[in-house]
DNA sequence: CTGAAAGCGCTTACAG
DNA sequence: CTGAAAGCGCTTACAG
């Protein structure tokens, strides 16, 4: 590997001068700068990130993004937005996928590891425990969350209670009175606030509409399509089955649609289904849903992290909670109840 | 940040001893090691990766994974497999998403940048040009490809010609004689070998079955669902429309199904459709497809990269091309032609 | 505008 | 078993 010394020798100048010339710093003659640049390119020189990091105060120029499940549409799309923004500002994105594994979680969030290998951490869709928060929040540590809020950290998310209320409002306006909720109640070893908030929105909407609350109509779909199928079957096999299902994610809603098809329950004639996300597959299923801007949330989170990194450590940074808005997309899976 | 000096001072030993104790090296008394360990934990000490990297020969313990489109199922699933394996061996995964942007491609593959920031590079689904190959292949550089082969680098992939032949064989065995191909012919500014090979498999299968080759039956679906919809409409609006469509990916196949539905073309009665991948959504669509093991391919690629890194530079490493096998999954979108 | 020198936080022979 | 010292490849005051 060619080092800064090689370039310096080649040009007959000191390493200090090479360093300045290459970084576009002032106090280098144009002539010298040109020669250095030329030699650097010719020799194929790139600074060693380790040396740069060590010499200039430890910045790694990499931001960790921690997600629970990379392959799910929401998370990979957040990644897309964050990566693009980070790359633009010449930072690397280090991917940490927890995969529902408590051990992985512990290794990532429960140690100091993360805090030295990266400059900042973006946590997506996982609620750190109090202990984890304390560990991550060391002074100078930059943490941003996506999809949920933690008091002292900046965040970006939708309003989970409101989005659920909007979905319910659509169903209620259509005339439905017996509406089931498919969400995620168990936490798979991770902690999510999202399911809790959406469930709350569901219940509040029920109350607001003067509809009775039947706890047996709240089922766990684990935020997966498979979970949606199971939930769908459980709900549709009941004698007093609901006329509509509100699923807290499109993936679960798609599962419910599948279960309905398997049982010969017609949608939307016999059953209305609504989801949340506007997953890329939703329009193929004709699914009515609440769209949320996901790429944008990833981008905003990256920007927040980068902003904190560039600001002075003792700037009084009021944590900024950004709430992006959702939009009802009516397609073919919702209609007035037939009975 | 607490440094190795703090720990050394705390224990009244030298930094060399702390270094040895913490890394489990021999020639440290058990008593000393215990004291050092305790102090390190108590002080919350973690080695600075920059210092470690600089002092011990530049290893960054991070592997770059370069993908063209993070959000597509195939790529995010490769990521899942690779991340898990890398994490297990205490490496970071740095994500590089090209996003169909030629500029991004140039920045990533066309410079030395990548080669110093990471120890190894895993390139997924993109064929580097000759120039890029030369630049990436500097001595000591470890590059592994997924989904395609490059002569001097290890790789893991399915047999793209064979998988296409298998899909076609299924259709031919069902009695279809007029079969269209929906693939990706234009390259979106990136280079993919996959579409080319699958197209070749399609043509070879046609020849093997003694079927005529009609070039107008080969259309470009761009490997997206939207492309699949367009292709579907184009194909189904013809007076001499095909009785079956072989799509080179499930995402495109799903698009074709959607187009058929929009036009009132019944599947499989009026049209058979087969894809490749076994995308997580495919079973909800009842799509017949050729399943490929994707998580496993990501894992193998990571393992190959790590293996090369740990072996001696002048080991004569014959590049190992791993081919994983595919499996026909028959569901409800394929049947004998009705006419 | 340019260079000599110290320092970033570790690891690694080399002595002892 | 342990320590003093050099060195990894840069950046950064400080002189000049």
Could you please describe the fold and organization of this structure?
2 copies of one chain form a homodimer. Chain A has 339 residues and is α/β, with parallel strands linked by helices. The first copy, chain A, has 3 domains: 4-47, 434 Repressor (Amino-terminal Domain), CATH 1.10.260.40; 62-157 and 294-323, 3-Layer(aba) Sandwich (Rossmann fold); 160-292, 3-Layer(aba) Sandwich (Rossmann fold). Chain A is built from 14 helices and 12 strands. A 6-stranded parallel β-sheet of chain A has the order 2-1-3-4-5-11. In chain A, helix 12 (250-263) links the parallel strand 8 (244-247) and strand 9. At the A-B interface, helix 4, helix 5, strand 2, helix 7 and helix 12 of A face helix 4, helix 5, strand 2, helix 7 and helix 12 of B. Chain A binds a DNA duplex (16 and 16 nucleotides) through residues 3-5, 13-17, 19-20, 23, 26-29, 32, 47-48, 50-58.
Topology:
The structure is a homodimer of 339-residue chains.
Chain A: H1 4-11, H2 15-22, H3 30-43, H4 49-55, E1 62-67, H5 73-88, E2 92-97, H6 102-109, H7 113-117, E3 120-124, H8 130-136, E4 142-146, E5 155-157, H9 160-174, E6 179-183, H10 194-208, E7 218-220, H11 225-236, E8 244-247, H12 250-263, E9 272-277, H13 282-285, E10 288-291, H14 294-310, E11 321-323, E12 327-329
Parallel strand pairs in A: 1-2, 1-3, 3-4, 4-5, 5-11, 6-7, 6-8, 8-9, 9-10
Antiparallel strand pairs in A: 10-12
Helix pairs in contact in A: 1-2, 1-3, 5-14, 9-10, 11-12
Chain A binds a DNA duplex (16 and 16 nucleotides) through helix 2 and helix 4.
């Amino acid at each position: 590997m060619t080092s800064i010394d090689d370039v310096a020798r080649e040009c007959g100048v000191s390493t200090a001068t090479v360093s300045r010339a290459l970084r576009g710093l002032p106090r280098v003659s144009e002539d010298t700068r040109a020669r250095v640049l030329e030699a650097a390119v010719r020799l194929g020189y790139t600074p060693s990130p380790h040396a740069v990091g060590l010499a200039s105060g430890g910045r790694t120029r990499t931001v960790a993004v921690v997600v629970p499940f990379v392959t799910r549409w929401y998370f990979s799309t957040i990644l897309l937005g964050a990566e693009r923004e980070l790359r633009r500002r010449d930072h690397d994105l280090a991917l940490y996928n927890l995969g529902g594994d408590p051990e992985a979680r512990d290794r990532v969030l429960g140690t100091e590891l993360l805090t030295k290998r990266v400059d900042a951490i973006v946590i997506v869709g996982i609620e750190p425990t109090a202990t984890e928060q304390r560990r991550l929040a060391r002074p100078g540590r930059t943490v941003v969350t996506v999809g949920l809020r933690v008091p002292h950290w900046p965040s970006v998310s939708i309003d989970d209670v409101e989005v659920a209320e909007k979905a319910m409002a659509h169903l209620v306006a259509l005339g439905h009175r017996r509406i089931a909720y498919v969400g995620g109640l168990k936490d798979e070893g991770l902690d999510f606030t999202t399911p809790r908030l959406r469930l709350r929105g569901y219940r509040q909407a029920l109350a607001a509409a003067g509809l009775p609350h039947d706890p047996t109509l709240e089922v766990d779909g684990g935020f997966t399509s498979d979970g949606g199928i199971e939930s769908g079957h459980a709900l549709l096999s009941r004698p007093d089955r609901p006329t509509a299902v509100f699923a807290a994610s499109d993936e679960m809603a798609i599962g419910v649609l599948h279960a309905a098809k398997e049982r010969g329950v017609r949608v939307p004639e016999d059953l209305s289904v609504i989801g949340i996300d506007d997953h890329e597959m939703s329009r193929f299923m004709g699914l009515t849903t609440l769209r949320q801007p996901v790429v944008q949330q990833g981008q905003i989170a990256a920007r927040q992290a980068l902003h904190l990194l560039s600001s002075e450590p003792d700037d009084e940074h009021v944590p900024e909670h950004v709430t992006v808005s959702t939009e009802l997309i009516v397609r073919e899976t919702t209609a007035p109840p037939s009975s």
